[in-house]
Amino acid sequence: MDYRSFQRILIRNYILGSLIAVIVIGSTFIFQTINVDTDDRIWFALIIACSFPVMFISEYLVFSYHIKPIKRILPNQQASLEELERAYQRTQELPFLTVKRILIPHYFGLAIPASGLAGLFIYWDILNIPSYYIIFAFLGGGLIAITHAIIEFFFTSQAIKPVLKDLKQRAQILHSTNLSLQDKVLLTIRNKFIMSTLFIAIFPVLLFSLATQIRLLEIDANITAQYWSWAGVIIVIVFALAIFLAILLTKEIEQPLHEIQNGMKKVQSGNLDMLDGYYSDEFTNLISGFNHMSTSIKEKNMQNTQLLESFFTVFAATLDARDHYTAGHSIRVAGYTTMIGECAKLPEDELNLLRKSALLHDIGKIGVRDQVLQKDGRLTDEEFAEIKLHPVIGAQILEEVKPKEAMVELIPGVKHHHERYDGKGYPSGLAGENIPKFGRIMAVADAFDAMTTDRPYRKGMTVEKALSILEEGKGTQWDPYYAQLFIEHMTGKEKL
In angstroms, rounded to a whole number, what is the distance separating the alpha carbons of residues 361 and 395? Predict the structure, then answer.
């Protein structure tokens, strides 16, 4: 949306709001209540004409200041993110700034010079009206300004929507950023209800009371004190009742909104609990929609988890299928690794990551030639050196998976499951607890499965023999704590 189009909309709304306020309120209050002759009407018109330039100049200066960030950005197709954010913020504030502009420079820019000129004309006997008419005109003008400001608020709230849409699209295209107020509330629902209720309830009463006061002064000035003794009580009662009803209505609206808002915050933190809906209005649909969303997210999460688990398992099985001698190796290592993690009382989420890491621990063998991987017989030094690259290749493969956050915690175990506790392993020669936890646990499980599985050049060892080798290698080849947990568990199972 270009600036000139936006400016035309604001001017159109300004004229329309002025006409509504002046015709509905001004004509009723001034021309139907105050009795003035034709000559005085001409002088009134002259006073207004002389005061208008002051009003327009003061209001235009304030409007130019308010609109400046928006005016600067709309024609600029290559704006910086900071400029777009400033313009977006100012656009959101424009309805409130419009109210301030009308209630201060607009109203006082007209009322002060008009009241001053009217006072001088009365003093010079040019105007033949009571001086207290100036006070009533000042008050009536205030009511007109308030009406105009409220109308402009709602007009401007609608007018800014295309501008906000344009700014958001440009920020997304130019800077891949979604513009928002970041949970900042410019006007609460409570304040909206209170101000609206006060205007609807109090404004007609004040207008009627002021018009009645003028009529009474023209009939009999002595009864005005008696009039205000009961009119004041009525105004106070109406004011108090309006406030009370506005608060009750606000609470009725705020309660389900707060419930939904808290529910959304829980969703952001991963809590997908459903909301209790006890409402009989449109909020029932909102609560129902929120609960449907939560249920759908749960189902999608479950499906994604199952799909990811299946992917890891199938991928591991496919990898092992390249060599029939190691078929099922990754799945068995994942089982042994999870068993050690359970014995070490690792948390559930860490156990889940440990199992996934174990399923993919040999993924780097994708980069090893078939003639090396499937060779019958012992490997040469060159071939073994190629095999030793598979942990690094595996880590590099996982680093390329998107999103990175999904794999970042699996990489250390995949890369370092062939490190030795004494620092003589590969690929990095890490020692002791410098080796990542997943790597130390998988090293025990991987070694045990390798020792107990048949190879082309040897038969697999017995469980007892493999466990005795693990016992001997505690503290040198394997982490003594995790090796001991595995041995104890396996020994216990054999005894059963």
Answer: 9
